[in-house]
Amino acid sequence: xxxxxxxxxxxxxxxxxxxxxxxxxxxxxxxxxxxxxxxxxxxxxxxxxxxxxxxxxxxxxxxxxxxxxxxxxxxxxxxxxxxxxxxxxxxxxxxxxxxxxxxxxxxxxxxxxxxxxxxxxxxxxxxxxxxxxxxxxxxxxxxxxxxxxxxxxxxxxxxxxxxxxxxxxxxxxxxxxxxxxxxxxxxxxxxxxxxxxxxxxxxxxxxxxxxxxxxxxxxxxxxxxxxxxxxxxxxxxxxxxxxxxxxxxxxxxxxxxxxxxxxxxxxxxxxxxxxxxxxxxxxxxxxxxxxxxxxxxxxxxxxxxxx
Length: 307
Fold this sequence. Notes:
Blueprint: E1 3-7, E2 11-18, E3 29-37, H1 39-49, E4 55-60, H2 62-74, E5 79-83, E6 89-96, E7 101-105, H3 114-127, E8 133-137, H4 148-154, E9 162-166, H5 169-175, E10 180-183, H6 187-193, H7 201-213, E11 217-223, E12 229-233, E13 236-240, H8 253-266, H9 271-285, H10 296-305
Parallel strand pairs: 1-4, 1-8, 2-6, 4-5, 8-9, 9-10, 10-11
Antiparallel strand pairs: 2-3, 6-7, 11-12, 12-13
Helix pairs in contact: 1-8, 4-5, 8-9, 9-10
């Protein structure tokens, strides 16, 4: 069983600090860091730290795309590149050292051509085999068809491939017109899938189980923010709360959680233990500054704090 991650809208993540965020003034940034970013990319980075290899498929354009690729290689991730004409976007996060608040600026991805979109499909059809796990994660690029992820899922509907989808908004709603293996919405996204803006705890559980019973997903993992998460499967609903740690940045925490879930699935853990690894990896990432992900030491520390 291989794990293949796909990131159609990657980003070169830049983080910095300023000593006081003041309007209309030129602010001196320091502690600059660059990291490869994007849903599938972060999942592959985390799985590499957990000792699980992945096929990391990523679009790449311009000098920013080349730099992102170089950063991945330095971390031990060997990406499979789909060249695109538009430059890979950059994101920025800034921490005000006086308030310790983090400000995140996300840029839209550039448009991909029809030829480039077909190239993604062709590479997936070449690489993904029966029993593999295909992780489709992150936002769509500018002007991509809302149902593009659905198109990708349909390529493997009769191939016995485990599809993990981690996106939001219309792309997630469209994707769930097909059956998948795992989804990881937050509370608001789960409510939107049900056609509501808000759901109480009992409603969340009932709807998650409804998705499982309807075979829309074998696992529905719902992120509850600082309160942890729950997992719904044919075996029922299980919760995991987050241990208390010093939070330095939340960037990449959701992607890290998915990586932990995949680690648990690959090792045939029961649902409650799958969730434990997911929550542990997500929490451990919040202990790193800027756009850095969890270290193996921090993951072990968090696991030790959890029941």
